[in-house]
Amino acid sequence: MAFLGIDLGTSGLRALLVDDAGRALGSVERHYSVANPHPGWSEQDPAEWIAALDSAVAQMRDTLPAFADLRGIGVAGHMHGATLLDAEGRVLRPCILWNDTRSQAQAARLDAVEGVRALSGNIVFPGFTAPKLDWVRENEPGIFAQVAKVLLPAAYLNFYLTGAYVADMSDSAGTSWLDVGRRDWSNDLLAQGHMRRDQMPDLVEGSEAAGLLRADLGAAWGVKGPVTVAGGAGDNAAAACGIGALDEGQGFVSLGTSGVLLSARDGYRPAPETAVHTFCHAVPGRWYQMGVMLSATDSLNWLARITGQRPADLTADLGETLQAPGTVRFLPYLSGERTPHNDAGIRGSFTGLATGTTRQDMTRAVLEGVSFAMRDSLEALRQTGARMESLFAIGGGTASRYWVRLMATVLDLPLHLPAGGEFGAALGAARLGMAATTGAKAEEIMTPPDIAETVQPETTLRADFDTAYQRFRAAYPAIRAIQ
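The structure assignment produced for this chain is given below.
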């Protein structure tokens, strides 16, 4: 048997085929674009997702013989996106993505309604789905009147694969329409957002079956028998399944375009006052919490772009030996910030620049600023009772050993670097497809990867970085006051 994991990202789709032991058999990637028709807008045509999936599957079908024995599929997707369908299942407008900030006013209105945070377990952020639909209601009433279903990106791929409107709990928890504690749509939350339950997809756990692959697709793909499509997951819940973070105390820090610090939880312990996200996990009876910053490696990419360098060259210039905190400070809020500030309008800054400041000084400041912002998320998570003794470190930023040592020291936690192989959202999605098809328990198949190296905090510099972190925290109110 073979199982397909699909990671539907913001900039591209990754398809991973694994065998019944979870070993990777092959992967394919396809890329597509994001439209920004106005400042703060971020949209995507769902037809590009379908084209990317069809192309990836065609290559797998032609190059991987095991694909013909496909038995299960799981989809992980970028969260919060609003894909609007009419009564015939046709897309009404481009999907409004997670990093679209046009609905700030609508988010603030919904967040101020008594009981909304208590039911949803979260602040209503501008990137969430409910305020997007309220924006459409106010600004595109003709389209809003035709909305028969609202699907998140992963649920839209499930619809394409099965013909059924089905979404999983972990993805749906980021809409501000779900009662996250009860794991069901909330009639009260829907009413506050001028929506109805019949406009929502059916709910299943991510490791449960959402349906079967459509017969016409199965024939076109050349698969031999029925193929189960799992409920799937939001991208970070799927990554947690791929890294084996299911139980209390397990988690990861991800240095990708955005930065994520995630902790699995055995129970539901919302703390929206911290701006921590509290979402359902992709497996039953579990939740997870995470802090999110919007410009992690994106901050380094920005510096590389304006200096005409490659990001890897900037970090390579620092070597691997961790240095004491520099005198230049960087606030990494290039696209606003979520945890703990919930501030879409804040922007970044450098301070402490002098005529002698070098490019290396600025690179160190960027890495330190991102690391301090991730410490903000750690402190917010700890306020909810989360206790982490170590974390896996994943994402493109971990290619810099300097940055990993810095992050371990700032967080004061050992960071495990996974051994080579698969461990991300695509693997987590494939594991969900495996669970939905075979009935295997999550704990049996969603295990942590082998550890290639554990990076310990630099104890001799820990106090210096603690002091620098406190200065970083004090800088936020000052920069906010002048913007």
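Interim note for the steering committee: The radius of gyration is 22 Å. The mean pLDDT is 95.
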